Amino acid sequence: MAADFINREAEDDAEQIDRNLPGPAGFLATGQWLRDAYSELRFEEIEALGEGDRVAVKVTMTGVHTGGFQGVAPTGKRFRQGQIHLFRLRAVKIVEHLAQRDDLGLLLQMEWRR
User: Fold this and answer.
1) DSSP label at 27?
2) 1 domain-assigned
3) Residue 3 and residue 103: Cα distance in Å, rounded?
């Protein structure tokens, strides 16, 4: 991971300053944020494709909702969420990350109600 790594996924969480830090610190903070919300957290790689400085990885994230997440109190519900992560590389180090996830589907599995 490059020292100037940017996690585009954290940009919409301005309140979570540590997740917006550049480099490994921001990436590790995001991992901790997920582990605080979900126990038994796992990512299963389904497929990975790369061309030039870009890599796309399709994964399935699973776990149990045991901590607060995005304003939703812990439910103890198991979940399964498909995701696609896009990485940009420079000199074999990750410099940028963004993802496409089914967040609404995840919230519904946690029985989120408005």
Assistant:
1) H
2) no
3) 29
Whether the full predicted model's pTM is greater than 0.70, yes or no, is yes
Structural domain of 46:
6-109
Residue 67 lies in a domain: yes
pLDDT, position 16: 75
Number of Cβ atoms within 10 Å of the Cβ of 109: 16
Which CATH number covers residue 76? 3.10.450.50
* Tokens coding 49: 């494709």
Q: Is residue 51 part of a domain?
A: yes
Residue 106, helix vs strand vs coil: helix
pLDDT at 14 (0 to 100): 65
CB 17 within 8 A of CB 106: no
Backbone phi, psi, residue 44, to 5° = -105, 120
Query: How far, in Å, CA of 88 to CA of 106, rounded?
Result: 26
Q: What is the count of structural domains for the chain?
A: 1
Pairing of strands 6-7, 93-101: parallel
